[in-house]
Specification:
This protein has 209 residues and is of the alpha/beta class. Helix content is 23%, strand content 26%. The chain binds S-adenosyl-L-homocysteine.
Length: 209
């Protein structure tokens, strides 16, 4: 996976050693349901239940590289899902906070991360649109579900000099993966990293689940 998918193939190459090391180390097959374990290392997202997916390895690496994570930084993730992205971030810095809206995913990711030794990752069940004010500000924010706009609460919870990676666009259509930077005066800059397809950021759980 690391040798073929992350080193080029016509896309922005993943060259950040910390990201490559993390992708080599985290056992991705333990983050997908047993029935689809054989698909864990393919160049695609994989279903993890409840209509959700673990992102494609390349996209995880691209987002993590864009954040320029350093040890000691405080990171907020919206959309825990399987916990894989949180584990990748935790390989670089222990201060990882992750929010998930679907209870069974929140529960299974929390126990998976503990069992695999990611003891410093803090998990929260809730609507990540509102971030995690108790632990703000964050040096980095990574949103792994597509929002219709950049949630103002998340930008507020970004530290000056901080960076956020977030897919923005409509549900089930191509979205833009944005890198947003907050300057020292609170000003905002935004650049598009890639076109992507993420599951939507949901605002309430549909009743028929
Ligand atoms: N980062 C995950 C993949 C995320 S898939 C991983 O590494 O496996 C997107 C996740 O975002 C899903 O688990 C979905 O339930 C969650 N999600 C969607 N809307 C959300 C919201 N408003 N707040 C928190 N999580 C949300």
């Amino acid at each position: 996976m690391v040798d073929t998918q992350l080193k080029g193939m016509g896309r922005t190459e993943i060259i950040d050693k910390a990201v490559l090391d993390a992708m080599l180390k985290v056992p991705r097959h333990l983050f997908v349901p047993e029935a689809v374990r054989n698909l864990a290392y393919r160049d695609a997202p994989v279903p993890v239940g409840y209509g959700q997916t673990i992102s494609q390895p390349y996209i995880v690496a691209l987002m993590t590289q864009a954040l320029e994570l350093k040890p000691g930084m405080k990171v907020l993730e919206i959309g825990t899902g399987s916990g894989y992205q949180a584990a990748i971030a935790a390989e670089v810095t222990p201060l990882v906070f992750t929010v998930e809206i679907i209870r069974p995913l929140y529960e299974s990711a929390g126990s998976r991360l503990k069992n695999l030794g990611y003891l410093t990752v803090r998990t929260l069940e809730g609507d990540g649109y509102y971030g995690w004010p108790e632990f703000a500000p964050f040096d980095r924010i990574i949103v792994t579900c597509a929002a219709l706009h950049v949630p103002p609460t998340l930008f507020d919870q970004l530290a000056p000099g901080g960076k956020m990676v977030i897919p923005v666009g409509g549900n089930f259509e191509t979205q833009r993966l944005l890198l947003i930077t907050k300057d020292e005066n609170g000003g905002r800059r935004s650049e598009t990293l890639s076109l992507v397809r993420f599951v939507p950021l949901i605002r309430e759980i549909p009743r028929n689940r």
